[in-house]
Amino acid sequence: MKVIVVKDYESLSKVAAQHLLGEMFQRHERVNLAITAGSTPIGMYEYLAPEVKGKDYLAHVHYYNFDEIPYFSGKQEGITISDLRRLYFNPAGVPEAQIHVLDEKNYQEQDQRIFDDGGLDAILLGIGADGHYCGNLPGTTKFTDFTTKVNCDEAMKERISGHFEDKEEIPDFYVTMGPRSVMNARHLILFASGEEKAAIMKTMIEGSITDEIPASILKMHPHLTIILDEAAAKLLDKEQL
Amino acid sequence: MKVIVVKDYESLSKVAAQHLLGEMFQRHERVNLAITAGSTPIGMYEYLAPEVKGKDYLAHVHYYNFDEIPYFSGKQEGITISDLRRLYFNPAGVPEAQIHVLDEKNYQEQDQRIFDDGGLDAILLGIGADGHYCGNLPGTTKFTDFTTKVNCDEAMKERISGHFEDKEEIPDFYVTMGPRSVMNARHLILFASGEEKAAIMKTMIEGSITDEIPASILKMHPHLTIILDEAAAKLLDKEQL
Amino acid sequence: MKVIVVKDYESLSKVAAQHLLGEMFQRHERVNLAITAGSTPIGMYEYLAPEVKGKDYLAHVHYYNFDEIPYFSGKQEGITISDLRRLYFNPAGVPEAQIHVLDEKNYQEQDQRIFDDGGLDAILLGIGADGHYCGNLPGTTKFTDFTTKVNCDEAMKERISGHFEDKEEIPDFYVTMGPRSVMNARHLILFASGEEKAAIMKTMIEGSITDEIPASILKMHPHLTIILDEAAAKLLDKEQL
Amino acid sequence: MKVIVVKDYESLSKVAAQHLLGEMFQRHERVNLAITAGSTPIGMYEYLAPEVKGKDYLAHVHYYNFDEIPYFSGKQEGITISDLRRLYFNPAGVPEAQIHVLDEKNYQEQDQRIFDDGGLDAILLGIGADGHYCGNLPGTTKFTDFTTKVNCDEAMKERISGHFEDKEEIPDFYVTMGPRSVMNARHLILFASGEEKAAIMKTMIEGSITDEIPASILKMHPHLTIILDEAAAKLLDKEQL
């Protein structure tokens, strides 16, 4: 585990983008990346999109989403992939052939598909204030789970309802790469920004391995890079860094 | 995680040796291996020693022990390194400059030293019927521990007493690379032989991640190879392999 | 470049096999190997076949031939792949899905196909007394050639005629991965045995880079391992090793 | 070989910097880079220096110069390292412990030193209109040379005289990593900008391997990335890219 602390959100966005570009440039043959939606990567994708747009020398880079909240009706693509398209794939002009959608129909093949494609070179993860990453929330998946379906109880439906204008479309379940699927990537890159992440970063980095903090397991990975801005890092024991 | 099942102890010994030789031959520059003492590797070292003895083309291979039970008096080298010398370093004629001893005096530098040396390319692990590996026994280390000192209570002293002819030499503590130190290696190779390991292999491979089974954490590593003979594999769910 | 000198043909065969097994065991995901036919590898394949036969844990290993002398009529598979089947694929029971045949019909796609498959992890090469490797003989390919077709003049037809009982089947051309195709592999392993290879090994290792010695270019590769028995190494400048 | 064509010098500088940053971020353990002085990298170092300055998370990155033109008197550091300090090490605040100077006193140990340090992860190269790279000019080194000393004839002294205010300081020789030293790096990154490089880029990329064009050998490397702006790429056969 390596903790990189940068000044602010802008630096965080740039350094995270440099990590992804580094993965892309590491090899001429196929490179596989799983990337995150959400709010943390907005700045990073703004930085990254123009570096990628129209660059045919990046045709070897393949993208995977690692979780999905489907629409109940199934009439449109889910929340995660829609976000990724809006934030990155569309502005960066990533060709469809390089986008490998995980959804409610194919989630049971996700791990085998990634293995057959050569494995993930890197996975970029955000983290929630409750210690979740991907769709691995406290009380949902176990550390030993691969990609799986998670049933939504009422609390979860409430939690995800903000994604849906039409509340009829709130689904009964979502799908996510589980902890073992994530840990199978060769490089984990986790980033967090802002004071509201300071407590969970301290817990995740300095605390014990427990199901209650899903992201706590990630520090057992041999190649985990954590990128934080000063606000998110402010509670860390400086002697340990 | 990949589970390799071979017929018997002889095959196990050979396939484990082939894995280690593969690590040695992967690169011309320095290769770092942490290897295990104990009874499981006896056959493997018998196979390996003549392949290594007198081979100056293996001068780039460096060895580390991952735990040590010292003598109380400190008058001689500890149990683990003595075993490794007897089983492998001596018959294989490994030059002293390629042997990096972990002991009670330098254990606090072990993780930094390995990092500075470029990290471990592979670590070869045995497993106990109680799920321990290295000196990580149930009730001793936590998943988050790096290399550490473990105090020996009376039960532990009893357990290790067989190693000491002179019972005055039973130590108050031992040292071991902790779970995080082990998980930091780029490749974990764990092997087990015989019916008496069948139950723990089922628990370790199919069970949950728990401190009570220290080796359960190992399956979260992105590159774990488990080598078993048929007897040790006989309780495994064949559909999962 | 690293030169490994072993005692005799038997050791050479074993050490070469250990290198290939090491490549197979380096990763759980797909591994791509190009391997050689001819007389040098006979002992190696005898050693290797039982290690591979019936081992479903080697299902991720894919094989490529790097040259082919087709039959004029095209009524049967060519000389190289037939040799490889007889020496290795058949005795080792390698499933057809793991064998990627290069022949006169698909040679123009060979480089792209290998790139799309992730690139060659290793290529095992023999060497002729004239410095040829694969079908790169003096006066045929240029260093800059990728996989290509080589026309057979009368001298070449004479040279390859021993492969054909029915002399009507001697072809007008053969196909081969060219120097650049070979140099694109991540690891080159070249082996040679016997006194009749001593002169070319000295020339190849110690001499200049010249089209007249096709194998001379190989020493510019960042990861070339040369395995020789003492007879093949006997003319080498010992100070340089 | 992969050829990346970008719009202009500014893009070239940024993409080259992204490649170097990618190398730095590929691993937490030591990373070794050999980098170029001269005019092509000026824009890149301007981009790179602020990304590196004051970043203790880049303490694992080590730098090597690959050639040196010493002062005759030996009273000050040579031309190349002085340039690198001015262009990059000083503005980026790279600590002295991470700078590994090649000079006239230690050039004979350069290859062994780099090997002992784990090998070069990447080397960034410029190219001259005559096809030279590092100090490998037409008529100086052979493809088979490792790091070596090159005597300066009158023409060479004339050529390098612009570097010296005091003409008494023009040396009789310079030192350079030779073709084999360079080819031993795991990743070659070569960049060129401007119309005055268009002809040599065509020759280097599309022409044959010849001593007269020293850089022609580089395309035999399994991992060569060439970064060009449109002006430098304008003569290339577009069908081949």
TrEMBL record, chains A, B, C, D:
InterPro entries, A to Z: Glc/Gal-6P_isomerase, GlcN6P_deaminase-like, Glucosamine6P_isomerase, NagB/RpiA_transferase-like
Designated name of the protein: 6-phosphogluconolactonase
Biological process according to GO: carbohydrate metabolic process; N-acetylglucosamine metabolic process
Keyword Magnesium carried by entry: no
Entry keyword Protease: no
Keyword list, A-Z: Carbohydrate metabolism
Coiled-coil segments: none
Domain of life: Bacteria
A Pfam family hit: Glucosamine_iso
Transmembrane segments: none
GO MF assignments: glucosamine-6-phosphate deaminase activity
